[in-house]
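Lab notebook, design round three. We kept the backbone fixed and only want residue identities now. Task for the bench partner: fill in a sequence for the structure below.
Input structure tokens:
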């Protein structure tokens, strides 16, 4: 079965369709792209730990330790586990 975008259908329906599973708190993650925090711009490759999961994994509160200490709310597409 092929979905409307031409890709293979996943069998998921509703809000879960096309969205990956939520990462858990205390999971180490890396930024896939730069994001702004109150402490400054965190460049891609910055490492941190998820301290809170928002809206079933749509976004995450992440405490970063490199290149400097900061807390930022990032979208799911901005991080890789």
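Proposed sequence:
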């Amino acid at each position: 079965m092929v979905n409307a975008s031409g890709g293979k259908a996943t069998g998921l329906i509703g809000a879960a369709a096309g969205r990956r599973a939520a990462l858990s708190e205390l999971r180490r993650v890396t930024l896939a792209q730069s994001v702004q925090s109150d402490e400054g711009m965190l460049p891609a490759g910055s490492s941190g730990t998820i301290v809170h999961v928002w809206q079933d994994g749509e976004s995450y509160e992440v405490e970063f330790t490199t290149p400097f200490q900061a807390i930022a709310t990032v979208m799911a597409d901005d991080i890789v586990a």
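Keep this in mind before ordering anything: Confidence is low (pLDDT under 50) at residues 1-17.
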